[in-house]
Design goal:
Among the domains are: 51 residues, no CATH class; 215 residues, 3-Layer(aba) Sandwich (Rossmann fold); 66 residues. Helix content is 45%, strand content 19%. It has 19 helices and 20 strands. Strand 1 and strand 2 form a beta hairpin. Helix 12 crosses helix 13. It is globular and about 115 Å long.
């Protein structure tokens, strides 16, 4: 079933045409990635399909069965809303019903009218099988680590806020999920969970993401915006890369063939034709058509280069550094000495202190204990999460000129601020554009220009992949692999981390930092092995009995057998009680999580007692 049909859609922003006369469709169950360079109109196209913006021309047709859940790159929300108010802000019948049920459960009233409404609401939930839906809601919240749903949105960190808005999009009753950079600001464990969830869902998906592992494992087809046109590829990202390469090679071969034909035809023209027959005129017309064809221009690549400053013997020493806020320990005392050309990745859950650590080692913020000693030749540059230092009112050219009028290149030559912008794919027509009119990815690219112009030898990148397109990321990765100084990277992008980091610092969220020698894939393997080992150690040791003649039960075993049945009955009664708590629902998600955990424990205890009962009965028979 076709959900969305787009026919000859066009959109212009200012003087720039984003796309023109593009046509494609989305089918039920299809999982589509929208890709293209920053500023090509990916987010704008998502907004048009989601009904947040209007196209200049063309038609957008939605199937009457199509219900869209939209997660914007910068989600809109009321900061005064609580988590539960935002999550249950949808308008479907089920969401409205569950929202009313939650409101009634949280109400202090206990009148006859209140009880009648609560009974009626519960009866309606029974009719619509809303309990299963509510259970799914609570399961998603638990997976995302959202337990206290009474917190206001304006008190949440950026990572937790992203989880809440993501939960709202996943929970609402849509059949088409439109996600703009869903993995931004999520920690790696949450990205892994989301990847698994979206791989299994039967809902249709249209998303923009730079996370290549995420994209490759979920999407079944790729739609690319390239120079205002649209291209579709029926396969995942790996398939797209293969076919895109073949397509570009074919285009270049075709261009070379035409050039060879033209070379020979032009020789014929220069010799002069003895007679201007109709056949010869047609030949001349064909030559003119070839000469006037749209020329294939090889795509310009970003040029990242840095002159580089020599690092001294002492680069950076961190000794017993710790940090707490309002009595909460963020980082316990940590000591580390950075070596020349060391490339370290930092991973850990949101709120584990990764950004705090960066502020401490760059002396942006004082530590509670310990000391940070930077070498005399160490020159830091920090690529922060939000490009916060960019003035939205300034023009691009002025932003770069404020940093440096003239830039020295590694080959000893100098270039102007405008030429530096062009190296990062900002054409001269954009140089007088104010920063506020740039796309999110273009702002990140501009910020990258400023960072490299500082000519650092200790580069710190805090979530550098957020909002950058895949091509820019690939160029950045190549640059960082050959970067002659020290590198410290915080990122949730697994592909990026594997390419640019040699070793890792693992932040566990409890203030501890572990040094891991290996890349992110190595760490995942070791973590899995640790989990298996821990699970085995926690399991009760089973005694393997050798074959012996059957004995009668001992006195103690008889007594044990007599007590097992009453104990099982007692556990079953508690199991019913805990299941009742879960079925009633309510807004106390901590209590519900504890109930589910206890249910799992009871079921395991019952199973063990039944196995023991069976063993004793066989022995006594």
């Amino acid at each position: 079933m076709n959900l969305v049909s787009i026919d000859k859609l066009s959109k212009t922003m200012g003087d720039k045409t984003l796309f023109e006369d593009i046509s494609f469709g989305l089918d039920l169950g299809q999982k589509t990635a929208l890709i293209g360079v920053n500023g090509c109109g990916k987010s704008t196209l998502l907004k048009i399909i989601a009904g947040r913006e209007k196209a200049d021309s063309g038609t957008l047709a939605l199937n009457k069965e199509c219900r869209i859940n939209y997660l914007a790159q910068l989600p809109e929300y009321n900061p005064e809303d609580t988590i539960i108010e935002h999550i249950m802000s949808g308008d479907s019948v089920l969401v409205r019903l569950i929202r009313r049920y939650e409101e009634l459960c949280a109400s202090p009233l206990d009148t006859e009218k209140y009880q009648e409404e609560l009974d009626a609401t519960m009866e309606e939930m029974n009719k619509l099988d809303a309990w299963q839906y509510e259970h799914e809601v609570k399961s998603i919240l638990g997976e995302l680590g959202i337990y206290d749903v009474s917190l206001k949105l304006n008190t949440l960190s950026g990572g937790m806020l992203k989880k809440v808005t993501l939960a709202q999009a996943l929970i609402d009753e849509g059949n088409l999920l439109i996600f703009d950079e869903p993995t931004n600001h999520l920690d790696i464990d949450t990205v892994d969970w989301l990847q698994t969830y979206l791989s299994k869902t039967t809902k249709s998906i249209l998303m923009v993401t730079h996370d290549r592992y995420f994209l490759d494992s979920i999407c079944t087809n790729i739609v690319e915006i390239d120079k205002g046109n649209i291209y579709t590829f029926d396969g995942n990202y790996s398939y797209y890369l293969e076919k895109k390469s073949e397509m570009e090679d074919s285009i270049m071969r075709g261009e070379d063939r035409i050039k060879n034909i033209l070379r020979n035809e032009l020789k014929w023209l220069k010799r002069g034709a003895k007679a201007r027959s109709t056949k010869q005129k047609a030949r001349i017309d064909r030559i003119e058509q070839m000469q006037n064809r749209p020329k294939v221009v090889k795509e310009q690549e970003i040029e990242m280069e840095i002159t580089g400053q020599r690092l001294g013997k002492q680069i950076l020493e961190v000794e017993s550094v710790s940090k707490s806020y309002d009595g909460k320990v963020i980082l316990k005392p940590f000591t580390y000495t950075f070596n020349n050309k060391e490339k370290l990745g930092i991973i850990g859950p949101n709120g584990a202190g990764k950004s705090t650590f960066i502020r401490l080692i760059t002396s942006e913020e004082p530590s509670d204990t310990g000391e940070v000693r930077a070498g005399i030749n160490t020159s830091f540059a920090v690529f922060d999460q939000h490009s916060k230092n960019l003035d939205p009112e300034k023009r691009l050219i002025d932003v770069v000129r404020d940093e440096k009028e003239v830039i020295l290149l590694p080959n000893g030559k100098t270039i102007s601020a405008g030429q530096m912008l062009e190296k990062f794919l900002f054409p001269s027509i954009m140089h007088h554009t104010p920063v506020k009119k740039l796309s999110g990815g273009e702002k990140r690219r501009l910020h990258l220009v400023l960072i490299l112009m500082q000519n650092p030898n200790f580069l710190i990148l805090d979530e550098p992949t957020n909002d950058l397109d895949i091509k820019t990321l690939s160029v950045l990765e190549d640059f960082l692999v050959d970067f002659p100084g020290c590198l410290l990277v915080v990122s949730h992008d697994r592909c990026f981390m594997n390419r640019v980091s040699d070793n890792l610092l693992i932040f566990d969220g409890n203030g501890n930092i572990e040094t891991f020698f290996g890349d992110y894939d190595d760490y995942l393997v070791e973590r899995k092995e640790r989990a298996i080992k821990t699970k085995k150690e926690a399991e009760p040791k089973k005694v393997i009995e050798t074959s012996k003649p059957k004995n009668k039960l001992t006195y103690m075993e008889k007594k044990e057998l007599e007590t097992i049945e009453p104990e099982i009955e007692k556990l079953e009664a508690e199991l019913t009680e805990q299941q009742s708590i879960l079925a009633k629902g309510g807004s106390n998600y901590t209590e519900l999580a504890e109930a589910q955990a206890r249910i799992d424990e009871i079921e395991m205890e019952i199973l063990e007692k039944m196995e023991r009962q069976e063993l004793l009965m066989e022995k006594g028979s």
